[in-house]
Amino acid sequence: MDFANLAAQLNAGTIVPEGIVIVTLLSVLVGDLIAGRAASRWTPYLAIAGLLSATAALYFQWEISDPISFLGGFNGDALSVVFRGIIALSAAVTILMSIRYVEQSGTSLAEFITILLTATVGGMFLSGADELVMVFVSLETLSIASYLLTGYMKRDPRSNEAALKYLLIGASSSAIFLYGVSLLYGLSGGETRLTEIAAHIVTDPTGQSIGLVIALVFAIAGIAFKIAAVPFHQWTPDVYEGSPTPVVAFLSVGSKAAGFALAIRLLVTAFPMLTHEWKFVFTALAILSMVLGNVVALAQTSMKRMLAYSSIGQAGFVMIGLVSGTDAGYASMVFYLLVYLFMNLGAFTCVILFSLRTGTDQISEYSGLYQKDPLLTLGLSVCLLSLGGIPPLAGFFGKLYLFWAGWRAGAYGLVLAGLVTTVISIYYYIRVVRMMVVKEPQEMSDVVKNYPAITWNLPGMRPLQVGLVLSLVATSLAGILSNPLFTLANDSVTHSQILQSAISNTPGSTQGVTGYIKPVLSSQVPVAKTNTGL
């Protein structure tokens, strides 16, 4: 094979966004080695610029003619473009909220950013990985960097404890997942590409063997750990409470988005003969996650633990789209992750700001906050109400699309469970909002009574303010102007060959989502004309 043919098969242009992030990572690392502590003044902004540049590069890869690269190891299709963009943007916002938090802890900011960018690279590669070795290497890159971030506050015993729990449970889940994919490798006769694995298993008369079922169970266990689905959620509350808050924000959005990208690509591509089986399992996981996550969140007294159980419930909502298995289901799933990026990171930005000013994250201490900090109260209220699904915020339209897609796909019990648990979640979200806006002076908490004077001139506070305002505006506008985002989500599904092949082989699947966008939005979404029955 000559060099020209090798270069054509590598097709390295598909990973230009990841290359930009890697160059940014190295620049931050070398800059910190040369400039020392003084580098903290410019390395965060260099990292943000690199992540935004990577996002811009993803825009130009939207309709790339040949998305397959590295001899079939990576697929840069439209679906991966959206997930990689979500991960890159979540890392950029996380850096904005990290600057003041990390500097106040007395640890190195550049090292924190370097590890965060490493996790980002792992998540972006995982979103497009189409081969078992690349899947596992990308997953471990994301996981190991996440373990390091969790224990980054070395002087904090809670951070050390959270990192140890995350490491032990995460290593076990990685071993279980690796065993599952090794079974896939053996059953396919030594193939590592997902499409070739599926082709060999389908043509093999023993393809319905118990080995394939075991491989599916073990793979689902690894994926469920990454997306924090019940009963693989045990690490989430303790890790969320003990970890640095910016790390929790990234894990709840970036890491979770990578996990769902892996779930779509692995289950749809490698297990075409067990579609009903894995949908049944994810139906059970979704119901358990929605019920346990939202019910247990009612009893929490810490904001970080409440948001931890909330994220478990949110994962259950997103799984409705995965179980639906239709164009509408996958598009609704992508749309919800897009808006979840803004509203969840906005909520964590407010939690960081409050903890920096008061030193606590107890829900009871937020009482009367409106009288001392209106901007923080407004931002946290909008983000929490959006997470609860209150119209006209982004979360309402995200849940509406998910529930309607599930209903059209026949997942009636799943949708009803989602509706009931959504009502439960609204209670504990509104409880925090009501507490913040009380007007009676005697109801104000002691922490709020001693609230420090608001100033944005301290080092690292201005980026935190920018992150708060951006999240607030995006959460509000993403609900009012949700049509462009849903068009993006729908196009990412219709332009992805693996999803279209899977959907065309699913009996009773529906193409396009125009039928249920019209009742909500007056504008049209450009999708294929199909008979939706509405």
Describe the structure.
The structure is a single chain. This protein has 22 helices and 2 strands. With 534 residues, it is mainly alpha-helical. A two-stranded antiparallel sheet has the order 1-2. The chain starts with a helix and ends in a 17-residue tail after the last helix. Residues 507-534 have low confidence and may be disordered.
Summarize the structure.
This protein has 534 residues and is mainly alpha-helical. It contains 22 helices and 2 strands. It comes from Trichocoleus desertorum GB2-A4.
Helical residue percent band: over 70%
Output the helix-strand order. HHHEEHHHHHHHHHHHHHHHHHHH
Instruction: Tell me the number of helical segments per DSSP (H or I, 4 or more residues long).
Output: 22
The biggest beta sheet is recorded as: 2 strands, antiparallel
Give the radius of gyration: 22 Å
**Count of strand segments:** 2
Based on helices, strands and strand pairing, what is the structural class?
Answer: mainly alpha
Strand content: under 5%
Q: What strand order characterises the main sheet?
A: 1-2
